[in-house]
Amino acid sequence: MYQIFGDYIDILPPDRDSLELSFTSSSEDIKNLWKNQRLSAHFLANCFINFLPLDENTPEEEQRIKEAQGSISYVANELIENAMKFNLETAAHQVKLGIYFLENPELVAVVFATNSVDQIQAQAFQAFIKELLGSDPQELYISQVESSATDDSSTQSGLGFLTMINDYQARLGWKFEPLLADVIAVTVMAQINV
Amino acid sequence: MANQEIRGEDYVVYYNANAVIVTFQGELALRSPKEYAPIKDLLDEVASSRPAVMTLDLKKLEFLNSSGISMLSKFVLGLRNNQNIQLAILGSHDVPWQRKSLRNLQKFLPSLRLKVE
Fold it and tell me: How many beta-carbon pairs under 8 angstroms link A with B?
């Protein structure tokens, strides 16, 4: 039995191009090479813009493509950074980063990342998600920065999500799906209009 | 305080002491606040030398992750109690993250001179 929070599309329509990258959680090189996250995000963005029914030869659409590329790079990088950072070391499940687009009728980029967590991590994450969904994201961003400025030890929890919501108007959703006794797959989905 | 440079694989941050300008270039996506500490320390050190005007030139900083935005936000917030320093930030409309996120810095420091062009 899985749990959904926020704005999550559980089953994506199968009639669209999509792209998904998978990393094994045991591949030390991937974890150690932190820049892989940023390169994966750029790769995803660069591939994705070719899916869009936009013409780069018209100045207006060229600007829109550039904007979409920047937004997807930022959002995908945040999602894969989190997925890698919080992935359960012992889980033999892959970390995934993917993208999909919808036309309903405006163009929406759907970026998602999956990693594994244990029960304790899942509960802490769900508590944070509930706080996030129940708050004013602008105010929460300011209070998170202010509290992290006075306390160096605090993790800058959620600033990535908050910048996605506030600056990129991302609609976020989360899915928690039990895999084994103490292994839960978390998928974070960000939808952005492009 | 003398000129300084912090160089990573894909970025460089350098301080020009004569002009009191810290210039950021490249792509910056470090893992955690701890890894941003050398850059934050450089900014704090420049501010503690009490210049009348301090400038951050971000025009050629093509990419910055949320940890980096957070580091900048904290630095800007820290200047709120230091009214003697006029902070200026230069950005570029051609760099998507700057168009999206730079204006938020003004919330932390209303006196900030933000020039995005």
Answer: 71
pLDDT of A66-123, one tens digit each?
999 999 999 999 999 999 888 887 767 889 999 998 887 888 999 999 999 999 999 9
Closest CA of chain A from B66, distance in Å? 5
Residues B5, B27: Cα–Cα separation, whole Å:
16
Token couple for A76: 């995908």
Taking CB atoms and an 8 Å cutoff, what residues of chain A touch B80?
Answer: none
Which residues of chain B make contact with A168, given a CB cutoff of 8 A? 100
Query: Tokens standing for A179?
Result: 């895999």
User: What distance in Å separates residue A11's CA from the closest CA in chain B?
Assistant: 29
Give the pTM.
Answer: 0.94
Interchain pair A160, B65: CB under 8 A: yes
Which tens digit of pLDDT belongs to each residue from B24-81?
A: 999 999 988 899 999 999 999 999 999 999 999 999 999 999 999 999 999 999 999 8
Query: Which CA distances in Å does A137 have to A104, A158, A162?
Result: 26, 10, 6
Which residue of chain A comes nearest to B72, CA vs CA? A145
> Which domain does B92 fall in, by range?
4-116
Chain A, residues 22-51, CB within 8 A of chain B, namely: 34-35, 37-38
**3 state SS for A78-94:** HHHHHHHHHCCCCCCCC
Looking at the structure of chain B, the number of domains it has is 1
Q: What is the CATH number of the domain that holds B72?
A: 3.30.750.24
- Tell me: the pLDDT tens digits for A5-29? 999 998 877 777 789 999 886 656 6
pLDDT for B23 equals 98
Tell me what ipTM this predicted complex has: 0.94
**Contact state of A145 with B74 under an 8 Å Cβ cutoff:** yes
Nearest by CB to A38, from B27, B95, B104: name it. Answer: B27
